[in-house]
Amino acid sequence: MGEEERRRILYVEDDPSSAMLVRRVLAAEGFDVIVATDGMAALELAQRIEPVLILMDMNISGMDGYEVTTRLRSFEHLHGVPIVAVTAAALRGDRERALIAGCSGYIPKPIDIDRFPGQVRAFIGGLQEEIGSPEEKSEYLVEYSRRLVERLEDKVRELQEAHQDLQRIEKMKSDFVILAGHELRTPLTVIYGYTQLLLSNPAIPGDDNDVGSPRHLISQVAAATKRLNQVVEDILNVSLIDADRLELKLVPVSLELLVQSVVNNITSMDPDRRLHFEVEGFGDLPQVRIDSQRFYQALWNVISNAVKYTPDGGVIRVTGQVVEYTVHLTVQDTGIGIAPEERERIFDRFYVLEDTALHCSSKTAFKGGGLGLGLTVARGIIHAHGGKIWVDSEGRDEEQLPGSIFHILLPLSEPASE
Asked: How far, in whole angstroms, is CA 182 from its chain's centroid?
């Protein structure tokens, strides 16, 4: 520890004027005073700066000085560091309670600026104030323990009330999103339906590739409506998953046909990517009881995610096999991979790996963006079927392209109703 660190003092004080006064008085004596304005900041700083003395205002907001002192005394590297109460509290027993909490001494406010530096040096030098008789110490210890329990009860009660409020707000939010999603679905369905009717009319001039022609304009409206409907569907599904209201219509389904349909749909959206798909092992799989529409969406989200992070010309391999009483699906790509710390986060709501300033709404463009809901929805749907999903990857490297493997386990039997 250098000379500067040997003279470093931590002052826990939420009053700026008091903090400034103590800092100026002690700075004139060659001490470096670092101020923490609350208990949590004090706990963090005390572990980082290794002070030679801690001055503690016992009446700080949040965690009070007694609680912070007790916590600081549990830090092994602070066992020999004096903690001195510097506080305006002057009621009978305040000094004793501070000593019981773990303080080495007690300096009342307002401080005497002439005596204060000497008092600080005395405590650094090993001064330790005592309470008195063992009986008196035991009495204050019981009282202090009782106060801590009362404070804990108050905090638990506040947390319970806050939790109830959050649950109520969360339900209101989920209900609103679900209702709004249903309300948006109706006009979107109408718009998309009419655009399809117009596109089916051979009298509409132009074609999809004739930019500016009526048919091209209508096809653009249809594509945008379909994309908007997918966004609404993702948001709605996340809300249903969070509210545990995702309903499944289970029927026997061929995974081979379902996977091939997803692959065909994705490749048709952006053929210029020149991605090569390999689908293997599904011909021998038995039918599984799933909600075909929702599981299609889950697979679409996982495979389209592989598409987004695989450079043009890469390979995406989708395989299926039976392992004991489950179907094991894998989606393996030759993409940029996933960093170890991101492997769980990518399934979180609204989590986006790329810089949002570079956001692109395309679901198939390389490193294209989205709302960060695709894998969240996929996980929710798979879990609702009694399955699991996780990802393996050696790491992220846009040069070496280590790729990723998404694993999906799906039970062959119907998930038990809860």
From this structure: 28
